[in-house]
Amino acid sequence: MAANSPSTAATLALIADDMQEVDKVIASRLQSAVPLVGEVARYIISAGGKRLRPALLLLMSGALGYTGSQRFNLAAVVEFIHTATLLHDDVVDESTLRRGRPTANENFGNPASVLVGDFLYTRAFQMMVETSSLRVMEILAEATNVIAEGEVQQLMNTHDASLSESGYLNVIRSKTAKLFEASARLAAVLAASPPEIEHACASYGQALGTAFQVIDDVLDYDGNAHEMGKNLGDDLREGKVTLPLIIAMQRGNTQEQALLRSIIETGSTDELSSVISIIKKTGALDATRQAAATQAQLAMDAAAQLPINPHSKGLLQLAAQLLERRT
């Protein structure tokens, strides 16, 4: 989100007290008899981040009038699942920097990162069982499975210069948007909302998550490395073919296509400046931002189906402000 956006800050202020309760749950459930487990988990969670998934669950709960304490528990659950994916992602991608500081695998090693990620998954499942709701467990079990499938598909797509836009979208809807969708849907389940409202919540979450990831992929070529807390060109180095590259491949001339294909297949960032130049020259960044705008509009359309109150207005603002995101 736009880090300094007044409307985003106002939206998040609606759930500031709720987020403090979620933080208490997170702190208490990170306890383990094995010191390294808590140390690694606290390291990555304390790095902060936008906490969008728990925030989405809390905002959606507010929009639907649900005030029960299970919203804190499930907000912590989705944050644990997300954090587990980050730990595993950074090992797979051999990343060294996240949110402006060394990744957990850089600090503690790959084995510890993988195993603590496993701990967070299993702790999340312990917590969801405590809801005594088969529907809640079904949503989160499916989401976790789909995320894992998306991770494997992304791995299969690495260094593939022929990846299509639809193939790219399939991955991010699985890998990123699915947990947004689950977070929003869980609020509807907690609130015992009718099917049409649950569907609107899920649609909002999926569209918002898709737009968020598309903008993230823009920032890998057009962001400020210091503000983002990661290195520009990381996606390219990791062999990830994202929408800016796909569109540039489609629009570039023969020479530009050949250069991009070679760089995608090797993962070299030696000519990152040339890649960025081609992406900008072909209008790929603008086209990618337009794709994100389309998803953001879908999210706003879904939010318009919710009861009108400060929380649902905040959800509309989140989708609108997403397009101004620079970090």
TrEMBL record:
It comes from the Bacteria. InterPro entries: Isoprenoid_synthase_dom_sf, Polyprenyl_synt, Polyprenyl_synt_CS. Its cofactor is Mg(2+). Keywords: Magnesium, Metal-binding, Transferase. GO terms for biological process: isoprenoid biosynthetic process. Signal peptide: none annotated. It catalyses: 5 isopentenyl diphosphate + (2E,6E)-farnesyl diphosphate = all-trans-octaprenyl diphosphate + 5 diphosphate. Its EC number is 2.5.1.90. GO terms for molecular function: all-trans-octaprenyl-diphosphate synthase activity; metal ion binding. Pfam families: polyprenyl_synt (PF00348). Belongs to the FPP/GGPP synthase family. Supplies octaprenyl diphosphate, the precursor for the side chain of the isoprenoid quinones ubiquinone and menaquinone. This is Octaprenyl diphosphate synthase. It comes from Acidovorax ebreus (strain TPSY) (Diaphorobacter sp. (strain TPSY)).
